[in-house]
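Q: Hi! First time doing this. I have a protein sequence and I read that you can turn it into a structure. Is that right? Here it is:
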Amino acid sequence: MKNRNKILLVLFTVLTFFNALLLLSNIWIYNNFGSVKIQEILFTLLSPTSGTDTSVIYSYIIKVLLLSIFICIIFIVLIFYLRKKTSIKFFKYTKYIGSFFIVTSLLLSLFYTNNRYEILSYYTHQSQKTTIYNKKKVHKKKNTEYIGDSTIIYQNPQDIKISGDNTHNLIYIYLESFENSFLDKSNGGIKDYNCFPELTELAKQNINFSNTDQLGGALPFTGTTWTIASMTSQLTGLPLKVEVANDMDKQNQFMPGAKTFGDVLNENGYVQELMIGSQKEFAGTDKLFLQHGFDKICDLNSLKEKYTFKSNELNEWGLNDYKLFELAKDEISQLAQTGKFNFTMATIDCHMPKGFLCKYCPNTYQTRYENIYACQSQLVNQFIDWCKTQSWYENTTIVLVGDHPTMAQQYTNDIPASYQRTTYNCFINSKATTDHIKNRQFTHMDMYPTTLAAMGFNIEGNKLGLGTNLFSKLPTIIEKYGQNYINEEVQKSSEYLDKNIYQFN
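A: Yes, that's right. Below is the predicted 3D structure, encoded as C-alpha cells:
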C-alpha cells in the first residue's frame, strides 16, 4: 500500500471513530440524562467525581467507546476486503462514496450536537457582558412599609438586613428528580393515575407554589437543572456556572463571596447539618455546604463508620432512602437538643437512569420508576408523620422540594411537548402566608428568600440574589422581565460576580 493511501486510511479511520463516538455519545447521553445542555456536561467533567455510580462509567465504555472501536475495525476490514476482492475501478468508486458519506455524516453529527447542547451559544455568551447585577439606587417611600422594588433584578444578600424573632427550626428535603409530571391530570400532571398521592395531599393541605391553577412548581432554568446546580441556586439565589467547577479544582473554594442561605442561618445561631446517602465530595457538595455555614455533613462514608449496613440497604450511588430516613430521625433528635437547627437532607432513589427499587416499593403502577415515585411518596409522608409526634414540630418549618426534572429519559417519553415540566414543592408549618400561590412563574433561585420568610425571617426588600420572596407582593424576575430575557442574561459574563462572588483569580 502506498504511503498516500496509508495516510488516507489512517485519516478516515480516525474520522470514522470520531463520527461513531459522537453519534453513540449523543444516543447514550439522551438515554441516560435526557435533554441536558453543555453547561451540565462541562461542570460534571470538571468537578470532583468521587462516589459516581460506576455502572454509568461502564455503560459508556461498553456502549460508546468499545462500540466505536468495533465500528472502526469493521471499517478497516471492509476496506481491505474491497481492495483485494474487487476491481481497482470499483474500489476507487466505493472509496469516494465512503469518503463522502463519512465526511458528510460527521458534519451533520457536529451540527446536530451543537444544536442539541447549544455549544456555540454557550461560548458566545461567555464573550458577552451583562448588566443585570449592577447596583441600582433604592428609593424608599417615607412612612410606608418597604416591600421592595420590582425593577431590581439582582440584590446582593450582603447588603440586605435579614432579621426575625422566634424564627422556626428548619427541615429541608431535596427530593431527587421529583417532578409534577407524575401526578394525575386532575392534579396537574400527565398521568391517568397519581404516582404520589401522599405528597399530593401534603401539598394541598399546606402551601404549594404553582405555575398553574393546579399543583405545580418551579420552572427549569439555566444552571439549576442538575442536583448540585439546584442546591446552589436554592442556597445562593444564583444559577451555577461552569467556571465554579474549574475554580473549585484549582483553589478548593465554592463561590467564596456569596452570602448563602446557610450563612444567614449560621449568623443567627442555627446548628446546621446536611445528610446524604452518597459521598459528600461528589460535584463539590462538601465545599458548597461546609464553606457556607453548615457544621456537619453525614454522608455515606461517615455513616458507614457509625452504622453497619446490609447489602439491600445500599445501591450504586449510596444508601437507599428508606434507611436514610430511618437514620435521619436519630440525627434530628440529637440536633434538636442543641437549640435552633437546620437539618437538610437529599434523597437518591429516583436518580437516573432508572431509579433504585427497595423492599418497600409497591408493584401497582405500570413502570419501575412510577413505583419508585410511589415509594418515595410513602416514605416522605411517614417521615412527616413522625415529625408531627415530636416536641419541636410546632416550631419547625418543613420544606419539600424536587431538585430538578428527572433525567430518567425512558420514563418521560409520554410527556407531551406542550406540557411544562416543573418540580414539586411543599411548605409545612410556614410562619408566612399568602393567597398568591397559583399561576406563579418562578425558579429554584426564589427558594432562598422564600424559605427564610417561611421560617419567620423578615427580608428587607424581599429579594436575595436573583430570588424573590414568593410570600411577598413582588413579582419574581421572570414574572417581571420574562424567562427568556433573564435566561439569556445569566449565561453572559459578569465582572461584578467574577470579582465579588466567584472571586476568580
